Amino acid sequence: MRILAILFLILPAGVATAQVRSVELRVPRSFGYFLGDLLHVRADIALEPGLTVQRASLPKPGPITYWLDLRDVAVEPVPSGLRLRLTYQSFYAALDPRRLEVPGFTIALADKSPGGTTTAQAEIPPWSFGVSPLREIQPEKRDDPADYLQPDGRIRRLDPAPAATTALTLAGFGLLAFGLLAYDRAWFGRRRGRPFATAAKRLRHLVGTEPDGYREALRLIHRSLDETDGRRLLADDLPAFLDRHPAFRRESEALSRFFEASRRTFFGREVQAAREFWPWPDVQAALRRLAAAERAA
Amino acid sequence: MNPPRPGDAMLTDWRDAAGRFEAEIAKAVVGQGRAIRLVTIAIFARGHVMLEGDVGTGKTTLLRAVARALGGAYERIEGTVDLMPTDLIYHTFLGADGRPRVEPGPVLRQADDLSVFFFNEINRARPQVHALLLRLMAERTVTAFEREWRFPNLQVFADRNRVEREETFELPAAARDRFLMEIGMEAPRDAETRRALAFDPRFHDTDRLIAEVAPAVLDHRSIGGISNAIQRAVAAAPEIETYVVALWDALLRPAEAGIRLPGIDMGHLVQGGASPRGLAFLVRAARVRAWLEGRDWLVPEDIRAIFPDVMAHRIFLEPVHEMRRAEIVPALCRAVFDTVPAP
């Protein structure tokens, strides 16, 4: 850290402050500040092990005098004790270079071990810094008061290209993620499911659950056809279905056997005849082929 | 398909006769295959039929052809705003000898031989006439001249056009519920048929066209017995019973069945209707259709083929939707069949 360290004070250790070994105050520089500048002060407090700061005793950020604000206070532990980082802001409108004194304060320290009763105090001493004026006391006479204003300092123009590229890339990722989400949730219309593939999986569980398994298998195919077509499909609708879904045209033979078997099973009460007409291995094979046709669609 | 049991040879013969009947009617009425099939179903289900459609689509021609092919006595009457129930029952005039006479009117003239009573433009008649018709349709009886007249073979065919609303009387719900079907007739869509209807002189003279239909293809006296035989012969599997009840539920409570129609609050669409009598008619007509298709068991297609014609006029919509009925009810029927799974 580039700090022009100024060792302000090493506090003499008294009896009451035996646990506080030293307080060191560092500022980057002690002169050359203007109206509105921030002053970053670092206070290193060397302590006996076991002591820690009582947070309530730290100064509160806020105005200290009419020309000085405390903006921020931070505490961090270091091996030798504590480090306070104080950020002041000076609002002193100096007419000539002069030194200003920042008042000191006291913080309370306590033993952090459970049951510990030791307390101590650390004095942060007052310190000073030099401020300089921003403008002449008696500037040259100008007709237009606006001419007293000075232009802002030139700043380097930033190149927007990398930021734009990053933004575009991230927007692209965002859009892609949105697209995936929309597809998953089917926001823009039906996601084309794979009802026959699902039915083929379920059919495996039905093997061996006779005699209801056969009816259930036919029902599975019915529901898959319904889902594929988005409506309830009856036997008479098969030609229209094949027109709407040409991918299944190769399976028209299997589908018409299926509808015939389904009619006999459910409505003709001839389950046995239906099973001979369209036996179980054919059902499995047909459903596999239908699932394949569905993938190809 | 499944061959009917050997004992049902009579039903097989009758199925052939029904095929001949349809073919005869198709000679006179072209491009109306669906309407002819539905009328045939109605005849074998012993149900009354209402034909509805635009002017000049062949409603009257179809009914005249049906009456001729069916055989039996046939009477017709034109609905007018001043028609009274008594005009159907008797007819008064002064005889050649100057004395007043009272003769039976169109309903009673043929007595119990009457097989087809054709009521043209039924919505032009007054509610009093509808009330008489209600009894004629429901019980096939009329009380007149201090006795009860029975018409065991009677079938009422009525037609109305849906273009005019002036000077017409909407049929009461009870009367509409007694019609087995309301068949909508549209002009044929296919270009060849339309051209023939416009240019072939054969279709310009209705009387000669009807004369081409062979008379009495069916024996109208036996149809009652055959109808009962069909109802006994065609079996309904438990799956079909479940299916029909599910359709009924979905029709009455479309929102709960998950049916959505665009722009309509489904919770407040159907007020009621679809009576148990309607459901009984539906199954009756579906059995006849299964028989005509050569099966002795019902399949869901049988229900679907006749559902709109049997059920649509029995659904009562909330008044706010009633004006758009012609568009909503067919969509609802389609949605019901797209939603309810079979089996």
TrEMBL record, chain A:
Keywords: Membrane, Transmembrane, Transmembrane helix. The chain crosses the membrane at residues 163-183. This is MxaA protein. It comes from the Bacteria.
Automatic annotation (TrEMBL), chain B:
Residues 45-189 form the AAA+ ATPase domain. SUPFAM superfamilies: P-loop containing nucleoside triphosphate hydrolases. It holds the Pfam family AAA_3. One of its GO terms (molecular function) is ATP hydrolysis activity. InterPro entries: AAA+_ATPase, ATPase_AAA-3, CbbQ/NirQ/NorQ/GpvN, ChlI/MoxR_AAA_lid, P-loop_NTPase. It comes from the Bacteria. CDD domains: AAA (cd00009). This is MoxR-like ATPase. It comes from Methylobacterium phyllostachyos.
